[in-house]
């Protein structure tokens, strides 16, 4: 009542008497958040002088925030101390915590309350003695109006209690945990079952693969040479389509790239931006993550950072809680229900967010400080059908090993070549696993992430396009490290290939409907980018081994038949052209200062492709045995952070000073 949206949480039965409320409203028709001068008695208890308060108020006006919101987001005072002092000044009781089962709220009401744009501000509950009380965590408090009200209705002091918003939110989250977890695991499957990877194959797909599993060995026994030739030709169609795509994207990537032009904006016009970070067994990189998030340029009063962790990952949780976090940084603990996957964790966290825009980062990411600004301005300049923007991922440890070097080469081709080429033509675009910026409304409209798909990024890119949305690309990158050894690289690449297979199977359940929704261009690109890349990786080992066997047989004095000779030529053409297209695209997309050791990349390409083929065959085996297994990729801190030196100082305004944690990690 005395805040901008001062109502008990949804589902709370407690209401102030109508006669009291109506009589008061007649005398006070307009409620306004109190200015700094009215807060001064509270600020004096916290050691904040009037001069400092006026400076904070000026920043609040510039950001379009209340004085209270700017004060708390600046980190000048601790949230718990602030509300304790406020309770003392108002003469009300103060609750440090509240037990979740003491809340008088239904589970659905809890979820509704958590999604309120101004946060959870009030809820009814039972106190330790069983009395009904109203817990309030004021947002835009009118102090003079509140004091006047309490003076008129002094008996309500026994009913009203002040509580810190974070403490109230934690209790409501815990009360809604089971409902939120059920929704994260089952919502997509229940509402859009045709888009869920929970079922690996449908009826006709299962029948088709079963028939092929019988027909291929039989044909191989009866007509071995002809069967191998037809198989190689079919595989070559996928292989050669990937070659053509790389060449076309590479020719366009050779053009000079332009830096983004950012415009100045009033912070008051900027929306709330949500940053989601999924962490699992990431205690080592927590300090680096907080430092990276610290540098993001966005008004802190309009930024919310959600660190999403598994509830039983105590090591990571303890590493996070070792730092004194700002009020806009929240730790979300995901219950152990359903598949233990990154998309399940993100689906659990999404209903707890209130941002108009949502960006996803991984624990090891170091995003460019201006990335949020570029994304938001790109959304503002575009139409509402632009649902997602993919920031490029840049590998910074390419010199660590030959695998990390080839990984960086491959990422350059993907994020600076293929994805921009697809985006410019409005084709369907498989997203990268991180640095995806979404319109919140579009993300929810398509059902969010699929908790059963182990490459939720590619699947979500397809689903967005099928619903009529499109994706674009950004310029400011996110830095991350690549796996530097085969033991780390193989499970990650296996998971990617398995997820691509899941994605293809899901979206090809009804090919005619898919074609109608995507159109011919995106339909063909989907076949090349998802199934084509997987089939190419599977086929590479077949092509290489067959070519080596036939060549060895020929040079050892054996005589090749006409079919065998055709087979050898097809395989050699595929392998050689595939290598050339891969090297050309990677080379053309690399920055000029990094175009070194072309010969080394060329020599490493055959063995890199061969281990990709191993990962692809391993993925098919896992798809049959453990389709929803998420193989975790371990990460370690990166010592040389490029953005540490290039971070913009100062940022757009003092309230945006880069501090996600009050304790700066070393």
Automatic annotation (TrEMBL):
Question: From what superkingdom does this record's organism come?
Answer: Bacteria
How is it placed in the membrane, per its record?
A: Multi-pass membrane protein
Molecular function in Gene Ontology = glycosyltransferase activity
Task: Give start-end positions of Low complexity composition bias.
Answer: 646-658
Query: Where located?
Result: Membrane
Chain positions covered by the region annotation Disordered: 634-666
- Please state the protein's primary subcellular location: membrane
A GO cellular component entry from the record? membrane
Q: What InterPro entries does the record tag this protein with?
A: Glycosyltr_2/OpgH_subfam, Nucleotide-diphossugar_trans
Membrane-spanning ranges? 201-223, 229-249, 524-553, 565-588
Keywords associated with the record: Glycosyltransferase, Membrane, Transferase, Transmembrane, Transmembrane helix
Pfam families attached to this UniProt entry: Glyco_tranf_2_3
Protein name, UniProt field: Glycosyl transferase family protein
Q: Record the organism.
A: Nitratireductor basaltis
């Amino acid at each position: 009542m005395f805040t901008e949206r001062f109502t008990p949480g949804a589902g709370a039965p407690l209401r102030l008497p109508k006669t009291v409320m109506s009589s008061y409203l007649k005398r006070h028709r307009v409620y306004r958040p109190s200015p700094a001068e009215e807060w001064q008695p509270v600020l004096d208890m916290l050691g904040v002088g009037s001069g400092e308060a006026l400076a904070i108020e000026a920043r609040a006006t510039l950001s379009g925030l209340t004085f209270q919101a700017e004060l708390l987001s600046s980190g000048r005072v601790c949230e718990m101390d602030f509300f304790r002092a406020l309770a003392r000044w108002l003469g009300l009781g103060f609750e440090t915590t509240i037990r979740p089962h003491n809340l008088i709220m239904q589970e659905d009401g809890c979820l509704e309350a958590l999604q309120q744009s101004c946060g959870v501000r009030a809820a009814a509950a039972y106190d330790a003695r069983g009395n009904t009380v109203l817990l309030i965590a004021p947002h835009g408090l009118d102090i003079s109006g509140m004091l006047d009200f309490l003076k008129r209705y002094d008996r309500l002091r026994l009913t009203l209690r002040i509580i810190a918003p974070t403490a109230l939110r934690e209790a409501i989250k815990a009360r809604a945990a089971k409902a939120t977890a059920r929704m994260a695991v089952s919502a997509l499957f229940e509402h859009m079952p045709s888009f869920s990877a929970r079922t690996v194959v449908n009826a006709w797909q299962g029948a088709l693969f079963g028939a092929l599993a019988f027909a291929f060995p039989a044909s191989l026994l009866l007509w071995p040479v002809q069967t191998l030739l037809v198989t190689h030709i079919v595989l070559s169609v996928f292989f050669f389509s990937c070659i053509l795509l790389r060449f076309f994207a590479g020719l366009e990537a050779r053009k000079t790239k332009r830096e983004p032009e950012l415009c100045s904006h009033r912070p008051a016009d900027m929306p709330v931006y949500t940053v989601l970070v999924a962490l699992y067994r990431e205690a080592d990189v927590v300090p680096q993550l907080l430092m990276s998030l610290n540098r993001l340029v966005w008004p802190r009063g309009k930024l919310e950072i959600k660190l999403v962790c598994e509830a039983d990952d105590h090591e990571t949780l303890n590493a996070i809680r070792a730092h004194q976090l700002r009020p806009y940084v929240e730790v979300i603990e995901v219950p152990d229900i359903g598949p233990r996957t990154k998309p399940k964790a993100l689906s659990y966290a999404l209903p707890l967010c209130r941002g108009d825009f949502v960006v996803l980062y991984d624990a090891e990411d170091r995003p460019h400080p201006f990335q949020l600004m570029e994304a938001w301005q790109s959304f503002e300049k575009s139409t509402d059908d632009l649902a997602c923007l993919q920031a490029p991922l840049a590998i910074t440890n390419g010199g660590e090993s030959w695998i990390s070097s080839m990984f960086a080469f491959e990422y350059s081709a993907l994020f600076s070549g293929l994805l921009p080429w697809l985006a410019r033509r409005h084709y369907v675009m498989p997203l990268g696993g991180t640095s995806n910026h979404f319109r919140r409304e579009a993300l929810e409209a398509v059902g969010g992430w699929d908790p059963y798909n182990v490459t939720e990024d590619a699947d979500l890119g397809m689903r967005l396009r099928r619903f009529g949305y499109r994706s674009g690309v950004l310029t400011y990158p996110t830095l991350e490290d690549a796996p530097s050894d085969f033991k780390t690289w193989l499970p990650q690449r296996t998971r990617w290939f398995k997820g691509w297979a899941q994605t293809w199977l899901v979206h090809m359940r009804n090919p005619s409907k898919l074609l109608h929704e995507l159109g011919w261009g995106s339909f063909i690109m989907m076949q090349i980018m998802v199934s084509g890349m997987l089939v190419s990786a599977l086929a590479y080992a077949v092509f290489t081994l067959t070519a080596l066997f036939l060549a060895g047989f020929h040079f050892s004095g054996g005589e090749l038949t006409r079919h065998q000779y055709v087979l050898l030529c097809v395989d050699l053409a595929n392998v050689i052209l595939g290598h050339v297209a891969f090297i050309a695209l990677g080379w053309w997309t690399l920055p000029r200062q990094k175009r070194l050791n072309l010969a080394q990349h060329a020599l490493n390409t055959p063995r890199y492709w061969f281990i990709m083929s191993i990962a692809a065959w391993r993925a098919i085996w896992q798809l049959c045995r453990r389709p929803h297994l998420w193989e975790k990729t371990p990460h370690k801190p990166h010592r040389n952070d490029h953005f540490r030196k290039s971070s913009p100082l100062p940022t757009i305004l003092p309230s945006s000073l880069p501090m996600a944690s009050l304790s700066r990690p070393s």
